[in-house]
Amino acid sequence: MSFTGAQGTSISSRPSWQDQLNAYCSSTKRTPPVFNIVSDRRGGRTAWSSTVTVQGLPGTVAARYWYDGQYVNNAKEDAAEVALKQLSSQPRASTVYPGQLYTQQSTGFGRGAGGF
């Protein structure tokens, strides 16, 4: 089964962003990326996101969005996409993932971010 994105393209026909980031790190002799899952309690629900640490990028790279719990892997995909775009000189179109809840705030994680 494949997911069809907002532009009508099939996502199963390409490697995942995590796989692409791993391949990029391997081909450029970097250490493998390290993902962290983070959560934030928002009202009666918990929102999930991810950060990734990649050799050659300062600090950690945060995913752009917060996700519902059943879509935690998409948070890692989102973070991998952002990191790969920062590492690569070729611009790529953003991907829409199912379960996106909130736009990630640049101020960081935790209670109080985004005014929720």
From TrEMBL:
This is DRBM domain-containing protein. It comes from Penicillium antarcticum.
